[in-house]
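Fold this sequence, please.
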Amino acid sequence: MGLQTENEYINKNNKRLRRGYTTGSCAAAAAKGAVQMLLGGERVEEVELMTPRGILLRLSLEEIDQGGQAVSCGVVKDGGDDPDTTHGLLICAQVSKRSGSDIQIDGGAGVGRVTVPGLDQPPGAAAINRVPRQMIRSEVETVCSQYGYTGGIQVVISVPRGEEAAKKTFNPRLGIQGGISILGTTGIVEPMSERALIKSIEVEMNVRIAQGADVLLVTPGNYGEAFLKEHLPLPFEKNMKCSNYIGETIDMAVEKGVSGILFVGHIGKLIKVAGGIMNTHSHAADCRCEVMASNALRAGISREGALAILQTKTTDEALDILDREHRLEETMGLIADKIQFYLEHRSYSRIELGAVFFSSIRGYLGETKNARRLMEKI
């Protein structure tokens, strides 16, 4: 069970990839099935769900419990060919009648609880985002109407293994404690979705801004985080990750009105920025050797040294060559200037930008002209 056949696959980069469906779709489908059983009294083992994307899902209901005053069931999350830490989790809904006429939605075990401002839901609320809440409410209202029921319904979404799975997600960084989030704006998981990752960066940025940050401290990845924690006199807990999406991070920061960003990153990432590349994933572009060699020539390295750099596989190999020819410091200074130029070019100089870059072997390598001022502001 899952997506209808004609919508199940997409073609991307000459590959046939299978779509999945979000935790929000699972929660809405489970709630729909549970309410059907609560009001109709008969066992339901499959439900249909029309997603906001306009794709129809047919989903099996698992672990059905019709005992007592409440009914519960679950739907297994399927990430398709873009599985994440929530892939395979059972997303459950327990429903019961309540006084009044409204529908109340809350989170149970394994669903995170928001503890900081700046997220989709306010502090204290279950981490069930706005669109999944709308989906759940709509499905429950439709079923109630079908059965002529005008009373209230209590819906509690839970995820049996959610608390453990949440440790592998962004939630602990975002101030969501105790479980995963129920997410999804389209109801469908697109394989290898860059949009989803960029959205997660925006969510973390919103949290930092809500906490009062006017200058953002950003690391592209784990290396940057480790260097920041061990070597820079900056508040590590204020950093956020941008993965390979340096350009998109700058765009979002400009739109949200922050005054600056300090990037702390490995030379292997930021050397690409010195070549004007704002998506540093190797699939997007790789000019590390070329940028290093051209700046080394400007710094006075020999022709043989530049040719040797062009043959290197890693930036650390290139740094060794620069060091042997005593051109390391000057070359890093030129690269810092290029990084600064392209950062400002991306933002049209609307916010203050800077960077600190390093090598895992050599440590600190250099910084742009604005880096120290940004550190003071942070």
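Residues 316 and 359 are 7 Å apart (CA to CA). The chain has a mean pLDDT of 93.
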